[in-house]
Design brief:
Blueprint lengths: L2 E5 L2 H4 L3 E5 L3 E4 L5 E4 L6 E5 L7 H13 L6 E4 L19 E5 L6 E3 L1 E6 L2 E6 L9 E4 L2 E2 L6 E4 L4 E4 L8 E5 L4 E5 L8 H5 L7 E4 L3
Parallel strand pairs: 1-6
Antiparallel strand pairs: 2-5, 3-4, 5-17, 6-16, 7-15, 8-14, 9-10, 11-12, 11-15, 13-14, 16-17
Length: 210
């Protein structure tokens, strides 16, 4: 996988715009009804990094980061300031934030995930890039200890227990996370005169599957 485990400067992603994108094919029938289908099980985030830049020094830092990734060649970590932890934005990460699995007495490894709910519907988003040192794990009411009860792979978001959780026990997790992304352009165009006049460059960034 062409991916660098390095985070885009978080002070530059602060102020960027972006959010989830879903592909839905819509066909309007002759009677006016619609048929809708999506080939994507999971959404993809898209961002514009240019809107987070505030100075010429910021442009220099982004150019350096872009060149080190060889443009679109290598992915990297991105902090989405609007959605970067298991809890709501105003709360601290807690052990009971997210139910990620139910034990069966045999399974050792579980994928971190964040569930989004609205009414009776929900969507479980796999989390593949947790922030190192931020993951909290609890089995039912028992808080687990990293390196003693479990390990976390920060490159995949897989939590592996040394002893499988008992059948029907709930596994909870709290964490901060990054989004795996890449630059979505084969060129980076900047205009110093325009930037000083208040115009920022367009630097598209897109989530990648890892």
């Amino acid at each position: 996988m062409n991916f660098h485990e390095v985070q885009f400067p978080p002070d530059l992603s602060f102020g960027a715009v972006g959010g989830p994108q879903r592909r839905v094919d819509v066909v309007t029938l002759a009677n006016g009804y619609e048929e809708r289908n999506t080939p994507w099980a999971h959404s993809r985030r898209v961002y514009d990094a240019g809107l987070g830049l505030r100075s010429l020094d910021d442009i220099e830092r982004v150019i350096g980061f872009y060149e080190a990734r060889l443009g679109q060649m290598f992915g990297f970590r991105w902090k989405d300031w609007s959605d970067f932890k298991s809890s709501i934005p105003s709360a601290k990460v807690d052990y009971a934030d997210q139910l990620i699995a139910t034990g069966d007495g045999e399974t050792l490894a579980f994928q971190l995930r964040k569930t989004y709910r609205s009414g009776a519907h929900e969507y479980a988003r796999p989390i593949s890039k947790p922030v190192k040192g931020s993951v909290l794990i609890m089995v039912e009411q028992d808080e687990q200890r990293e390196t003693i009860d479990y390990t976390v792979d920060e490159t995949t978001g897989i939590v592996t227990f040394f002893d499988a959780p008992d059948p029907d026990t709930r596994v909870f997790a709290g964490f901060e996370f990054d989004v795996p992304v890449r630059f979505d352009s084969d060129r980076l165009l900047t205009n110093i005169a325009s930037f000083q006049a208040g115009q920022v460059p367009d630097i598209p960034v897109r989530e990648v599957r890892v």
